[in-house]
Amino acid sequence: MATFRRSATLAGALIAALVVLAGCSKSGSDAPNTGTATGKPIIIGLDQDSTGPGASYSNISGKTIRLAIQDINDKGGVLGSPLQLVVGNDESDPTRSPAVVQKLVGEGAKLVLMQTGSAATAQAKPILAQLGIPAIAPTSVTQTLVDPPNNEFIYMLANATGDWAKVYCGAFEKANIKKIGVLTDDSPTMAAVDKALFDAMPCVQIAASEKGATAASDLSAQVARIKDANVDAVMVTSLGGAFEVLAQNTLASQLAAKPRFSLASIGNQPDSWKLANPGALNGLVFMGSINSQNPRTQELTKFLKDKNGADYEITAYDAQAWDTVHIVKLAIEKAGGADDPKKLNEAIQSITGYQASFGQASFTLSYSATKHLGTDGLCGLSLIEFGADNKPKGPWATYQPLC
User: Fold this and answer.
1) Cα–Cα distance between 119 and 122 in angstroms, integer?
2) N or C: which end of the chain has fewer CB within 10 A?
3) Are 262 and 283 in contact (CB under 8 A)?
4) Does residue 84 belong to any structural domain of this protein?
5) How many CA atoms lie within 13 A of 370 on its CB side?
6) How many Cβ atoms are within 10 Å of 187's Cβ, its own excluded?
7) Are 152 and 169 within one domain?
8) For residue 7, is it within any domain?
C-alpha cells in the first residue's frame, strides 16, 4: 500500500505543477510581441486546454507555439506583419469548444490552432466549416478529425491512429504478442482514440480492458484484473500526466515481467518521468516521433535549449507545435496575406514536401483538397524504449517501422 500512497502523492504533485504552469500561461507575460515587424498584426486563434485533462501536453505545445511566433516576429514577421495570438481554453470539453472557436474568430482570428483534446476538436468542426475559417490541430492523432463531414477547413500534422495501429501490429507480430490487456483513462478524448486505434488492430486480442478516472489515486484493482487475464503484454492509453504515472507505477509493481506499451503521452511529458517510482518506466515502449538524426530536429533542439535551458527535453509536442506555426507562415505567404480565409485555406492545400521537425530525416508533410492529414508515410513514427533511469534510451531494438 505504501507504493500506492506514494503514487497518489506524486499524482497530486503533478496536478499542482500543471495548474501552476497553466496559471503562468494566463498571465500574458509569455505572449509574443511584434518584434521587428511593423505591419498590421495577423491574428491567430489558439484554443489551448491549459487547465483541463489535456493540459499535460497542451501546455508544452502552447509554450512552443508562442516561442515560434516570437521567433518569426523577431525576424520581420510574415509579409512584414507580426503574428498575434488570441487565446481561449475549452478544457478539452466538447461542449465548450464551439463557443471558444466562435469567441476567437470574433476577436479577429484568421486561423485557429486547436491545441486541445480530439473530442473537443471534433465538436468544433461544424462551426469552423460554417465560419469558413481554417484550423490546424497540431498534436491530434484521430483520423476522423480530417475526414468528412465538415472537414473542409481542418488539418492535422501527426500520424493518425491508423498508422499507429500498423506499427503496433508489426511490433506485436515481431514480439509474438497475441493477447493484450488495456488500461485507459475515462476522458472523452481517449474514448475516441481507443476506438479508432483498436478498431484498426485485428492483429491482437484484447483479453482485458480496464478504465480508471483521470484523477484516480489507485489503479490496483484494474491491474489485478488484467493480471488475472494472463495477457502477453499491457498497453496503457491515456492523456498522460498523473494517470499515466500511477498506471506505470502500479504495473511495474504488480506485472513487472510483462512487456508494456504506451501511447505518445508518457514519452512527451518529461515532467512525468521524475515522478514515477525509481525504475518504474524501465522497458516501457511508447510511440515516439522525435528522431535525433533528423537535422531539423537537431536545429529545433538547440533553439529550445537556448530558450528553456540546457536540460530541456524536446518532445513531439514541441516539434509539431513549431511546424504548425511555420506551416501557417508558409500558407499566409502563399495566399499573399490572411484577409481572405478561402485563399488561406487553398494555400494550406498547396503545401507539399514540407520537411518536418519530427519523424525520420526524410519525413515530409503534404496537403491537398482531399488530403488534410499531412503525413507522407509512416516515417513520422518510431517505437522508443525507456531505460532504468526512467528516461527514453533510444529506439526499441525489437521492431521499427520502415521509412
Assistant:
1) 5
2) N
3) no
4) yes
5) 0
6) 22
7) no
8) no
